[in-house]
């Protein structure tokens, strides 16, 4: 699932960066380019960094794969 649509970054890419040692949103911005477009991905990325499940997206109210 894409997390950062502006730069085409997926949950898997973020998880791989975290597994490789990224510990902050700033590091992910530098490594993957997330959060440099519209910024809508910032909340979900920070949740993923904390190990929290992402919130349901607004478009489908939780009916999509993000549940």
Task: Describe the protein's topology.
Blueprint: E1 2-4, E2 9-10, H1 11-19, H2 25-32, H3 42-49
Describe the protein's architecture and organization:
The protein is mainly alpha-helical and 67 residues long. It has three helices and two strands. It has helices at 11-19, 25-32, 42-49; strands at residues 2-4, 9-10. Strand 1 and strand 2 (9-10) form a beta hairpin. The radius of gyration is 11 Å and the shape is globular. The termini are close together. 16% of the residues are buried.
Overall geometry comes to globular
- Broad structural category: mainly alpha
Integer-rounded radius of gyration? 11 Å
Q: For the residues shown, what is the average pLDDT?
A: 84
Note the run of SSEs as H and E: EEHHH
Sheet with the most strands, sense and barrel status: 2 strands, antiparallel
Brief write-up:
This protein has three helices and two strands; from the N terminus they run ββααα.
Name a few traits of the molecule.
iron, 67 residues
């Amino acid at each position: 699932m894409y997390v950062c649509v502006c730069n085409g970054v997926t949950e898997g890419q973020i998880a791989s960066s975290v597994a490789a040692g990224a510990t902050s949103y700033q590091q992910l911005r530098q490594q993957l380019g997330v959060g440099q477009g519209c910024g809508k991905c910032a909340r979900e990325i920070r949740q993923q960094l904390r190990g929290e499940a992402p919130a349901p997206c607004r478009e489908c109210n939780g009916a999509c794969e993000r549940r």
